[in-house]
Fold each of these.
Amino acid sequence: MKRDDLNIRRDRIIALLTENQELSARDLAAQLGVSVQTIRADLRDLDAAALVQRRNGAVRLRQQSENIAYLPRVGASRLAKQQIALVVKNLVKDGARVALGTGTTVEQCARMLAIRQNLFVATNSIHAVHALQNAPGAVVELAGGTVRLRDLDLIGAASAGFFSRFRMEQAIFSCGGLSEGGEVLDYNAAEIVARQSITECARERILVVDSAKFGRDLPCRMGHLWEYEVVVTNAPLSADIRDRCAATGCRIIAAEAE
């Protein structure tokens, strides 16, 4: 079987589990039109990549325990973040060089990317490193400096300098908020500096943001949506924002349930 066909089927497995929370191998086989043995082989690989969890004959998306400050954000808009991550997974090819930022949406992207082969990843997120632990052939570089224990990431000066060492093909990052006028916002200057350093190391900048952040009023700005190459979101963007993005070549990809 061609690897593209294999990846497409496994993408569909993740999408079905996103929609249904829990299914059996027999359920998945019936919906995808393949044998139970084929699905079980897929599930073994997805389990090894830390994407799914099998228990008592059923399978569900894996949910990692997080520290108390990070956990509420993991649960918020979880379905939307998984849908965004599915889109991002299909933007990244085997062997790509990728910079990953911080936050729960980017962590979901890292989980989905764990099935890709031979990635070279630079990140300032310990959560992203953990999500990529079983990615086949992956090489992961982690920023140094002081760990922000609340979120298990690094956003200080050492982190900012870290990304300048790399020439990446893609940068995947999120933000704290998105104004109704298309401004990309965050909570403080340190967050802005960290994300700017990520975007400056890559040819293609991919902003991932769920609708819960849309209309959020935050004090710090890091530009506008249309300054990036790709925006993956389920936020209700206005016609004016879409027109501005189209004018600059920014591609907006809607993250929606199949």
Note: The chain is about 40% helix and 20% strand.
Amino acid sequence: MTAGPTVYVVDDDEGVRDALALHLDLAGLRVQTFASADAFLAAVGPEEAGCAVLDIRMPGMDGLTLQKEMARRGIPLPVIIITGHGDVPAAVSAFRAGAVDFLQKPFDEDRLIDRVREAMERDARDRRQRQEEEDARRRADSLSPREREVMLLIAEGLSNKHVALRLDIGVRTVETHRARVMEKMGVGSVSELARLALLLGEE
């Protein structure tokens, strides 16, 4: 939908949408506004990057419900909730559902910009990690069952000799498997291999 990371503002109040869009635009941020949760969900999918600024009280689907629906649909955008009511239970619900902040109208514009930038940095960091995990999993899927066994033992810090004893195979065979594992996983050291094994949850 967009050419880069975007701040998605969802608020039924046109004045608030326009004001937020102006402040964010002046801060050099790309902005897309929506008058309802349904309009947002119709336009934004899991692939979009950035963050979402959601009004807590809107006709139809409110901000907290939209936040939960985003999670259900696998839309991983960090969420900032804004409200003119500031009720504590709603704030607690928002944070429990993963919101990065809860701002009461009228809020400080500089604080909003700071929190939006933090949310977008978090989104970029999370996306990089997910991509790294996907790449590592794809590489690990190319390993044979024996190569995967060797990888896990090497990642534990075992020497070739101890891997050979554990698997009841020759040291030369371990060396061959180890070389293939390092090549397929795209790493040049045991520490890198151990990090990928940990990333994959295989340690």
Note: Strands lie at 6-10, 31-34, 50-55, 79-83, 101-104.
